[in-house]
Each structure stands twice: as C-alpha cells, then as structure tokens.
Amino acid sequence: MRGELSIETKYNNTDDFNLRFSAEFPIVLANQAAYIQGYSDMVEGFHSEKSFAKMDLRNFPELRSKVYTDLGLDPKKLYYELSKEMGFDLARFY
Predict the structure, then answer these.
(1) What is the pLDDT of residues 39-60, one digit of tens each?
(2) DSSP one-letter code for 5
(3) Whether this model's pTM surpasses 0.70
C-alpha cells in the first residue's frame, strides 16, 4: 500500500519481510504522522518511535528496493505521478 493505492503483489503476507503491517493499526499511523509533524499533543495513547520504525519499509532500503523491483515500479517516482497513472488524480484535492 502506498497512500491510497493498493498494488497486487506476489507476497502472501508480511511475515516474508519480518515487518509489522502498519495498515492494521491506523491509530499508529495517525499518531506517527502527528508526531513527525511536531503535533505531539495530538498523539493518542502510547506512542513509540522505535516500534513504528519496524513497520516502515523506508527504514529498510535493501528490502524496499527489492519490493519496488518485484512490482516493476520506480521507487523514485513521485507519488503524484504514480497515483495519476493508476487513475487517482490528486488535483481533485486542490
């Protein structure tokens, strides 16, 4: 998953990567987004920077590269470009 995009993969589950699947925990994502942007006062309940790091593929460059290669995607492509190619034009938000 990348933003609102859902991309089919050959992977069966996240156990293949030894990562926790963050989308199962939306409050964790919301808390991390608030924390990163400096809105710690908006964080609900317990928040651990270390536990989030284990959920984010960006913290594992070699694995991230493998996944993007397997998907046939360019990891340097902007999210806007990728989403537009997949039928989601972000201009609708502006």
Answers:
(1) 988 887 777 677 667 777 788 8
(2) B
(3) no
